[in-house]
Amino acid sequence: MAMTESAVPLRTPLFRGERRLRIALVGMPNAGKSTLFNAVSSTAPRTGHLAGTERAYGECTVQIGFDEASVIELPSIGSLYHLGADDLPALKFLLWGDERPPISVHEPAGPPAPFAPPDLIVQVVDATRLESHLELTLELSQLGRPMVIALNMMDEAWDKGLHINVKALEKLLGMPVVPTVALMGQGISQLFTTAVAAVRAAASPLPQPPSTHICDSLQPLSQALDGPEIHAAFRVPHPLLLTQVAAGDPYFQDELRQHFPQLLPRLQQLRSEAAGKLPRPLEEELHADRHHRAATLFEASTRMGAPHEGRGWRYWLDELFLHPQWGLIGSLTVFAAVLFVVFEVSAWLDSVTAARLVEALADWQPTSTGGVIGRAVSDGLIGLVGIVVPYMLPLVLLLVALEEAGVMQRIAFVVDRGFHQIGLHGGVAVPFLTGLGCNVPAISAAAKVTSGRERVIASVLITFVPCSARSAIILALAGKYLGGTGVFAIFALTIIVVALMGRLLARNRREFGPGQVQEIPPYALPRWRSMLAETWARTEDMLTIVTPLLVGGSVVLAVLHQVGADTAINTLFTPVTAWWLGLPAVLGVPILFGILRKELSLLMIYQALGTFEVGTELDWVQITTFLLFLTFYIPCISTFAVMLKTIGRKDALVSVSLSVGVALLVSGAVRLLLEGVRVFSA
Hints:
This protein is an alpha/beta fold. Helix content is 60%, strand content 7%.
């Protein structure tokens, strides 16, 4: 297959490591700031309280393309003026971060937060209450830092008939405005991409000075404050310092009194003279002017109309896949479709491919060593066909089609918070679903969307997802002898074990990967050429890694059987099979060599017990115990080989140890529990 190369433009400077950006999320109450933060946060965001307050902040590192950013969610704030003791540290952080100016050194509480000042401010705005939020925008623009507006809840504004001209608002404010629906993940990727571009361009908002009559009255006060010693002491942009002093802000007045006592009387006199030139008290005049300018911006960039009607199919699909509650139903629908492919379509494909090959070779029973090896090689190749054609290709092709259609990205966004509980992101939803067919391509897919600690956790947990071979054994035995309740209980226990193992692994590994900005692409019709190319890319490991192992495993198994090593193996495994699991000792061979050819485990069980009627040799407790052990035991040697490639020898061996330990612990504990229930109910 010809290799193709593509060039990706690398924008500089690159913000990574110690040079990563610092982005502050700011907004009024109920604007959706926390929803936005949670949508991009890492699996373990750091939290704390602003110094001297009970107001909490959150911080996490977020991956934005090739760049990284430290995103800090500040407590909600309604204004930058006349702040109380709990709100003032938020302003101090926006101004100085942990780099305190001379006027703040004496404060006992220390810096408001242990972070450098932000490189950019993202103001989260409720689009349905745009006018009131624009007042805070005008105040934030005086900080002199690059800004981006996250115009959130655009769907609700749309429902109310509020038409917002985003381009006009951008031009009036001189800063990017990005429409978002944070609750449904829409616009978030564009928001953070725009934020990075704004920092690279060093684009600060357009100056938004007060009205002319206020500027004229404040001119003498402005000149008095425009001294190098004052600016060096406060390190505050001059327009903000002027407005704070003119408004009589207690904090700035107190700092002037402490550090510039000789200048304060003159400043108070100039402030009084400015107030005398205005029809209202200076503080009221400043607030009224700010309110008027916000209203003017609102009127220039919006219009009211009738609520939008006529929902299209894209809207209803988003309601199904992205809604906080309905999205779970949409995800379960896709999950059901995947199960249908695995257990219905794949079963039919198996009957017309691998099953016919097995039937064709059924009469070939060689006795010579060469013939046995030849038959083993044939069995290995048939096993490859039995995995790839019925189970792997249809499942991977279906998932690739759902990705190209834009469905899987929406599912990943909805389940992201749930996966955070086990130290992962929602992007691993696709590999986990792939694991229902085969763990090999699932682990390869997980390696492409994760890194570091998350890659290890995802790879380990995927080994506990019942692949088609293990599911077939569960359905064949549990479905026949334990009923639907037994099948459901085994799969439910699998989910519980995966969740508990994820929490345990996430807690024990202290290195946390960055959060991910998940893009919600538009719906699109999948294209066959790209689908087939991506399917091949995800399954080619089966030829390069798995095929030799399947064939080699079949040869080893056949040779051991040929030389009569079965009895020795069963005796060696007696402490596990008979003593701990309470199973017949003859099941030692299926347990051991199930790791070579998991899809042959059921056949080996029949051969070991000497009958296809397993219920005549095992009771319901033994069947349950054996199925649980087989479910959590090492999936197969092919899976182990792929783990060696993706996470390294050390973590792959740890995964094997965990699989064996969990299989022994869970199956043994359930066996003891069921034995107790049986004795108690007898």
